[in-house]
User: Fold this.
Amino acid sequence: NVREGFTRADDTLPERILTEPLKGGAAKGHFISNEELKLMLDEYYTARGWDLETGIPMKAKLTELGLDYVADQISAK
Assistant:
């Protein structure tokens, strides 16, 4: 995805999930706010070793995974 130009800006949910409250179940009446989504993405990116601003894996993570050749091709921190 990084190679194709995807960034954190592309990592979102459908508008419906962000605005329409659920109609049933344990979370009835709730929806995911933009602020909650931002916090969830921050936690996910941190756990994965990705840059919080861009959503791109950091060079250290790519090296850890044995992907030095990829780390040299992208502008990760």
Q: What stands out?
A: The chain has a mean pLDDT of 91. DSSP finds four helices and no strands in the chain.
